[in-house]
């Protein structure tokens, strides 16, 4: 995990966040966090292979389908899927600055792969909680 000043700087610099596993289903953490990030002023891009129009926004099936650069990939997927998503991230041009695995999600394989490419990795932390704590 980054030091607080580094994490705050990252959250201030980031403008576009792709949310992997996006769902606008009430009561689910991804819905609460997604809506929070939208309200915090980020350009949120939902990514889900089957859903369309999450939070009333255009929703893409994969990260590769997003037609413009993404600053941060916010992951709401089970840990076993993270290495495949990490490989997808390494093929994006330009590469995102950060791959953020939400609370309860860690992947050593994804972390090693991404850090080798110079991408910041955050594991087992909530973007909403950290944003509120540091930028409230």
TrEMBL record:
Protein name: CoA-binding protein
SMART domains noted in UniProt: CoA_binding (SM00881)
InterPro entries cross-referenced by the UniProt entry: CoA-bd, NAD(P)-bd_dom_sf
Domain named CoA-binding: residues: 10-105
């Amino acid at each position: 995990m980054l030091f607080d000043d580094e994490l705050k700087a990252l959250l201030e610099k980031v403008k576009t966040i792709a949310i992997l596993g996006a769902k606008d289903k009430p009561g689910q953490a991804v819905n609460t966090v997604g809506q929070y990030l939208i309200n915090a002023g980020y350009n949120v891009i939902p990514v889900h292979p089957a859903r369309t129009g999450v939070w009333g926004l255009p929703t893409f099936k994969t990260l590769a389908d997003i037609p413009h650069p993404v600053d941060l990939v916010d992951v709401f997927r089970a840990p076993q899927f993270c290495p495949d998503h990490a490989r997808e991230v390494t093929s994006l041009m330009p590469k995102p600055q950060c791959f953020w695995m939400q609370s309860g999600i860690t992947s050593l394989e994804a972390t090693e792969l991404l850090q080798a490419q110079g991408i910041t990795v955050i594991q087992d932390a909530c973007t909403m909680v950290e944003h509120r704590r540091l930028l409230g």
